[in-house]
Amino acid sequence: TPPQPMQTPRNFGGDGPGGLRVDSPMFGGAASPAMKAHPMISDVHRVEPPSLEYQARIAEMNSALAKAYAEQIKPCLDQISKLRGLGFAKELKLPSIVVIGDQSSGKSSVLETISGVSFPRGNGVVTLCPLQLSMRSSDKKWRGTVRYFDAQGKEVHWDIDSPDDVENAIQNAQMRITGHKKAISKNIIEMTLEAPDLPNLTLVDLPGIARYSHSDGGSVNLYKLTTDIIKEYIQREETIILTVIPLSADTATMEALQLAKDVDPYGLRTIGVLTFPDLVNKGAEEEKLQIARNITFPLSKGYITVKCRNQEDIKSRKSLREAKVDEMRFFSNDPFFSQLDPSQRGTDTLAKRLSTELLTLIK
């Protein structure tokens, strides 16, 4: 029996930038042209030398996803590499993981947690450009590079010497692509990180769906631009789609699910990730629990609820390891979300699921 198409709520809040009706046409169409780049600001910034916390950050980057990768995927890739050397296997196109969702849905927090890499964080619009993070296993010490093209088509490239500088490097690249106006751009930032303990994986963070039509005083339709960017990346068949939905928000508007459904109608590549379970309004816990149990808006591969670092945790310099302990404590003690099956909660569970799905796509 063939798998059934993904089920999504009939009404996402009406047609238009504020919502979507499942039985109506999608907005937009073909991807719109890239926004005109703003003038580049002054000379390319070179990151400072590694901080005293260098070794600690490297250890922290040995993430849950890296561990799951080492256990399940690397042995498979090693065998493929041997067959390729004997002429029995063609070049392998590795799958990537693309994270989509509304602005401030917790997308970057999810990526940070599973990868161990610090992404720019904050309220409102934070991810301004598509960011492709390529992690590579290497025998050499940790190193990173950033690459993008400026408005004149000239390649801009610089090195990153420490994990401490990754977040600033991303922010600097975004500013040089979009200018000080924090405009959203289709221009991609390519970041490559190499270290002995990193997995060979590609993660993509995309701008969140804009809930307003136009930029201040501008003519660019930001809603269409952000959804066009998402469509462009998730339509690739070798892509796993992480659809991030904040439980703290009105889950009647879950447009990211519909965008995923348009390119993956049977839900074979889509995993729902629910964020901010600790910020659910009092009295709404049972309703949110039904979503987390894959009952309200069923997905073929279901949902995994995670609790990541928030802005207060970051300001207090709480480490990813400490945040993981907090997450485990939350799911053990919360009167509602402790009822979830272990397969439906936790960042470690998400990492293992991603590893399994990646292995399926590779095979």
Describe what you observe in this structure:
A hairpin with a 5-residue loop joins strand 3 (143-149) and strand 4. The chain has a 9-stranded mixed sheet, with helices on both faces. The protein is an alpha/beta fold. It has helices spanning 54-60, 64-85, 107-115, 166-178, 222-234, 255-263, 285-292, 311-315, 320-333, 347-362, and strands at residues 96-101, 131-137, 143-149, 155-160, 189-195, 201-205, 239-246, 270-275, 303-305. Helices cover 32% and strands 15% of the residues. It has a single domain, classed as P-loop containing nucleotide triphosphate hydrolases (Rossmann fold), CATH 3.40.50.300.
Short description:
This protein has 363 residues and is of the alpha/beta class.
Task: Quickly list its features.
alpha/beta; 10 helices; Dynamin_N; Rossmann fold; Dynamin-type G domain-containing protein; single chain; GTPase activity; 9-stranded mixed sheet; P-loop_NTPase; GTP binding; 363 residues
Which structural class best describes the helix and strand composition?
Answer: alpha/beta
Percent of residues in β-strands: 15-25%
What number of structural domains do the residues give?
Answer: 1
Give the CATH superfamily. P-loop containing nucleotide triphosphate hydrolases
Neighbour order of strands in the largest sheet: 4-3-5-2-6-1-7-8-9
Helical residues, percent: 25-40%
Quick one: how many beta strands? 9
> How many helices?
10
* CATH classification class: Alpha Beta
Instruction: List unreliable stretches of 5+ residues.
Output: 7-61
**What spatial form do the alpha-carbon principal axes imply?**
globular
CATH architecture label name? 3-Layer(aba) Sandwich
Order of helices and strands: HHEHEEEHEEHEHEHEHHH
The average pLDDT score comes to 76
Biggest sheet details: 9 strands, mixed
* CATH fold category name: Rossmann fold
Radius of gyration from the CA trace? Answer: 20 Å
Compute the separation of the termini in Å.
Answer: 22 Å
